[in-house]
Structures are given as structure tokens and as C-alpha cells.
Specification:
two-stranded antiparallel sheet, disordered N terminus, signal, SusD-like_N, four-stranded mixed β-sheet, TPR-like_helical_dom_sf, alpha+beta, 16 strands
């Protein structure tokens, strides 16, 4: 499918004059050809109109991208992590300037924060409005137009949901399209306005979309995606951060969240998650026969599966994550490195936390008999990985010293990784970075069914307490992961169940853009992010081995960091744009 790219001549996030270009590359050094496509020529051609919508889809995963944050020269920046590196999941790959590092050190401010959330979301929202304006005249049959309009409205809601989780209340454009000659309003709508708008758009879009997409339409918006986005937005809206003037002050009261606190918001979140579950269209990918928890690993290698509700489609034969997360011997680079705190959050294979004296945890053999998700999510010393340009696997030598004829090498702690770990989550075990022989057809999850089950469990527990349905939702995930026994202890109270659910979210959804937002909406980031992070050094001398934790970085968190600052470049454009508190 041909894709349209927009080059901005006069740019403003909320409106501007766009010059349309199409890009064609003939070979690696092919020349880029620029044409003078106009709004009229784009929307009077059916192929161009379809490509215009496809281009809006192409950015849906930017917020969750593993290489989202970069450092170095503006013209050739180098990734050093995604939102995982701005949380207690991982450490940036290089101690150089980036938004992730600024969040780690507590130095984030309006002058240094990336503007990608603000810019990308409003650019795509404007594109949706252009499509909706011109779609009625496009030479496309009415059924397809109806589908395209519904997809576009979902995408508009999707981009607003990204804005809201970053900033709280933002300016709602409605269907307006501003040009560079217009006075562009920048005043923020309330948090409640924004939540209600997203819900309304999802409801309207869902009426004209199939419950799930299949075939050539797999990856496009569906009614299920609309319901799932509502589930996520309502869960956030019910959470402590956004209830009862949690951090808002002065002019930001009502912008940073609801001025009041209403427990019934948890009921709405519970009902929204239940609506996704009740469609019967989605299920966990289960395979404990091949190996305990194998369905969890296999899920992320399957391009089409029943667990993905909304996903970022990628070209077949990609190695996107391998290029970032695999160790140097596989030529991966510039992805963030997992922290010891995340490793310690994975329970034993019997479901008990390693802090439980009866769990069987052995600090002298810390990776033995653990929740299978640990090995599927984290590369630790001696994890086997596919060899580049050859068949078979070989262990990753992260140790310091000598073992099995090997000595400290390029993958070692303090050499290739600053924490003693690399990320394995969502990697295809048959794929290798920069290897044309070993690639994957994977796409990347943006909303999956496991999240919905955890959304339901959390909302229901907060509203009703630990009912049987709450137990069932959590235990379904633990059963899929191959825990034995997978059942939770009976008689948990609401606080205890809350702790279980929060830890399940931490390990089940690791590296999928959840932890950063979860600790904020729970309003516990002042505890989870005001820490000295830890790594693991494995010292080997033949058969002798010692495991030593070490300090990685002192993290700092301040109250302002519960929301992002609006970029200073945007605040400077209009006194109507009220900055978030603390910035």
C-alpha cells in the first residue's frame, strides 16, 4: 500500500499549513521525489485516501516504542530506551541527555522534555479531522466510507488518550482544522471533558466496526479495540492520581484530574472491562504442554492471535526489538537494561514471592525454579540465545571471570550491560539482530487481553473487594504462565489482593508501556522511583559462582513528575496553555 508523508513548511501543533509529499526510494541511496499533491488531489483519489488513513495508523505505537527516547545530535540521534527506562523497570543504555534519563534523575522539566507526545498526537488528530472533512466526497463506496470514518474516530480517541495520560486535560479540537492564518485556541479542557470525549468517540466508532478484525483488515480498529480503550481510560480515570484534586492546584484543579473523588468510577471501569470479556472474541494464548508458560513466550511471535486486541503492524521479517534489546554478540544495542527490582518481582514457579520464607528461593541460585515469565522476559547470565548467521543457540556470558573456557566478554556486566541483564520480553527466540537468516513476522501489542483481565480484577477489587470473579481473572493469567499451583491463597482482603494485582501487572505487562503509568495513577511513584536501583554481578571461577547485587543509580522523584510538563516551546506560543503544577 502506498503511504503518504507530510512535510511541514509552517508548523503549529494545533494547526498549520501542510505541503504533501510522496516518497519513493530506488535502492539504498535512491533519491526522494517530491510532488505537489494537494488536499483535493489526495481525497479525490481512492488509493490516496486509503493511504492517508494508513499513515495515521503508522504512528499509533510511538508512545510505547522501545527506542522512543534518544540522545546525541539532532540529525542522527541514538536511542537509549523507551518509557521502560523512565520507570523502575530498566536503566537507560547510555548516561547521556534524554527524557528517560531526566525522569530517572528527577531533573525533568519543560525545557528538556521531548515534545513527541504533544506533537505526534495533535498532528494525527488534525489528520483525522482532515479525513473526516473530505471523506464524504471521496470516490469510495458508502460501506467502506462508514468503516473508514469509524476507524478514524477510534484513532482520534487513541491519540487523545495518549495526550491525557501524559498531561491530564488538554485542548479538544473537535472537528476543527486550523491553518497558520487562524488564531488557534490552546486553552485546556478539563480532565473530565477529555475522558468523556474519548468515551463518546469510542462508542460512536464501535457502532460501525466488527467486534474483531481478520484477514487483510487484521490490525485495524475494531469494536473490541474501542471497548478495550474505554477499559483503559476508565481504569486510569478511577485511579487515585486523578481523583479528589490529587495534585491539581490553583488553575490546574480540574485539569490535572477530577476535583472530586467518586468510588463509582471503579464500577464504570469494571463494567468496561467486563464488556470486552463478554464479547467472547478474545482469549489468552495458552500452551503449558510444550513447556510451562510457553504460551506466554509464543504469543509475542505470532502475528495473528486471539489475545491481541489492538496492535502495531510491522513488516514481515522484522527484527525491531532484537536490534535494540539483544546483547552485543548478537549486535543488539541502545535498548534499556532491566533492573534487579523487576527481576525480584517475579515469584517462584509455585507462585510465592521470593520474599516468602517458604517459597524455596535460593539467593545462590537465583534464577532456578522461578515463574517462567522471568526467563521469557529477562536475559540473565547463561540464558541461551539463537546464534547469528548459524543454527542453534549458545549461552550469553554476562559473568565476570572465567567459565567453560570463556572469560569476561563483550556481553558482560559493566561491559555490555550496566545492570547485568538484557531484555528478552517479546523477542522471537528464532530471530537475531542484523541477521537476514533469522527474522520474525511479529507485530507489537498495544492492547491485549491479559491487560483487560487485570483491568477487570483491579477495578472490581477496588469497587467490590476480592470477589470470586476477581480471583478468576488473576488466576487465569497465572495458570497460563505455568505456575503450579496457580491458585491464589484464599481469604485475601482488598489490600492484599491489590498488592497481588499490582505485582501481576508489573511482571505480566513489563516492557509494554504500563509500569511508568501504573505507579503514577496508583500514586505510589514517590515510593517506587525514589530508590537506588540495583543490578547483578555474577562472578565465576570455573564451577565456583557468586551473585552480588550492586548499586546502579540513585533515582529521584518529585510530586510534579506525576504528570508530564507541556513542552516549553508550546507553552510559549500561548498564555492560554496552562502548565502542569510544579513546572
Amino acid at each position: 500500500m502506498k503511504k503518504l508523508y507530510f512535510k511541514v513548511l509552517a508548523y503549529s501543533v494545533l494547526g498549520g499549513f501542510f505541503f504533501f509529499t510522496s516518497c519513493k526510494k530506488d535502492g539504498f541511496l535512491g533519491q526522494t521525489q517530491t510532488s505537489n499533491l494537494t488536499e483535493n488531489t489526495v481525497f479525490t483519489d481512492s488509493a490516496n485516501t486509503v493511504s492517508f488513513l494508513a499513515n495515521i495508523y503508522s504512528n499509533v505505537g510511538f508512545s510505547a516504542a522501545a527506542g522512543r527516547f534518544t540522545y546525541g545530535p539532532i540529525l542522527s540521534p541514538t536511542p537509549n530506551g523507551g518509557i521502560d527506562a523512565a520507570s523502575d523497570e530498566a536503566e537507560v543504555s547510555a548516561s547521556a541527555g534524554s527524557t528517560a534519563l531526566a525522569f530517572e534523575t528527577g531533573t525533568i522539566n519543560a525545557a528538556v522534555v521531548t515534545d513527541d507526545a504533544y506533537k505526534n498526537c495533535y498532528t494525527n488528530i488534525r489528520s483525522v479531522n482532515q479525513l473526516l472533512k473530505n471523506l464524504p466526497q471521496a470516490p469510495i463506496n458508502s460501506f467502506v466510507k462508514t468503516q473508514m470514518k469509524a476507524e478514524a474516530r477510534f484513532l482520534r480517541a487513541w491519540y487523545y488518550s495518549i495526550l491525557v495520560k501524559h498531561y491530564g486535560g488538554v485542548h479538544l479540537l473537535g472537528d476543527s482544522i486550523y491553518t497558520y492564518t487562524d488564531k488557534i485556541p490552546a486553552g485546556r479542557n478539563t480532565y473530565a471533558d477529555c475522558v468523556n470525549y474519548i468515551l463518546t468517540e469510542c462508542d460512536a466508532a464501535g457502532q460501525d466496526l466488527p467486534t474483531a478484525q481478520s484477514g487483510v483488515n487484521y490490525g485495524r480498529a475494531s469494536k473490541g479495540a474501542c471497548l478495550a480503550l474505554k477499559s483503559r481510560v476508565l481504569l486510569y480515570a478511577a485511579s487515585p492520581l486523578f481523583n479528589g484534586q490529587s495534585i491539581g492546584e490553583g488553575k490546574t484543579v480540574g485539569l490535572a484530574g477530577y476535583p472530586d473523588s467518586d468510588p463509582k468510577r471503579w464500577q464504570l471501569a469494571e463494567q468496561a472491562a467486563a464488556a470486552v470479556i463478554s464479547t467472547g472474541m478474545y482469549s489468552l494464548n495458552v500452551d503449558n504442554a510444550t513447556a510451562p508458560g510457553f504460551g506466554f513466550q509464543k504469543l509475542f511471535t505470532k502475528r495473528v492471535n486471539t489475545e491481541y486486541i489492538f496492535q502495531l503492524m510491522r513488516p514481515t521479517g522484522n527484527v525491531d526489538l532484537e536490534n535494540l534489546w539483544q546483547p552485543p554478540t548478537r549486535t543488539g544495542k541502545n535498548g534499556a537494561f532491566p533492573l534487579q527490582g523487576l527481576v525480584d518481582a517475579f515469584p517462584m514457579s509455585n507462585g510465592k514471592l521470593i520474599t516468602d520464607p517458604s517459597s524455596g528461593y535460593n539467593p545462590n541460585d537465583p534464577y532456578a525454579n522461578r515463574d517462567p515469565r522471568l526467563n521469557y522476559s529477562i536475559i540473565h547470565d547463561q540464558t541461551p540465545l539463537q546464534i547469528r548467521l548459524a543454527s542453534g543457540t549458545s549461552p550469553i556470558n554476562i559473568f565476570v571471570g572465567k567459565y567453560n573456557g570463556n572469560t569476561t566478554g563483550p556481553d558482560a556486566v559493566h561491559v555490555g550491560t550496566t545492570t547485568g541483564y538484557y531484555t528478552n520480553k517479546m523477542l522471537d527466540p528464532a530471530a537475531v539482530a542484523n541477521d537476514f537468516e533469522h527474522r520474525t513476522d511479529r507485530c507489537l501489542p498495544l492492547i491485549r487481553y491479559a491487560e483487560i483481565l487485570l483491568n477487570y480484577a483491579e477495578a472490581a477489587n477496588e469497587y467490590e473487594g476480592p470477589t470470586g470473579a476477581v480471583y478468576s481473572a488473576v488466576e487465569a493469567i497465572r495458570q497460563r504462565e505455568g505456575l503450579n499451583p496457580y491458585q491464589l491463597p484464599t481469604g485475601l482482603n482488598q489490600t492484599e489482593m491489590r498488592g497481588v494485582i499490582q505485582n501481576e501487572r508489573r511482571i505480566e505487562l513489563a516492557f509494554e508501556e504500563h509500569r511508568f503509568w501504573d505507579v503514577r495513577r496508583w500514586k505510589i511513584a514517590d515510593q517506587t522511583d525514589n530508590i537506588t536501583t540495583k543490578g547483578m554481578e555474577v562472578d565465576r571461577d570455573g564451577a565456583a559462582v557468586a551473585y552480588k547485587q550492586f548499586d546502579v543509580r540513585k533515582r529521584n522523584f518529585r510530586k510534579a513528575m506525576y504528570l508530564w510538563p507541556f513542552p516549553q516551546s508550546e507553552v510559549a506560543k500561548s498564555p492560554e496553555l496552562i502548565q502542569n503544577p510544579g513546572y
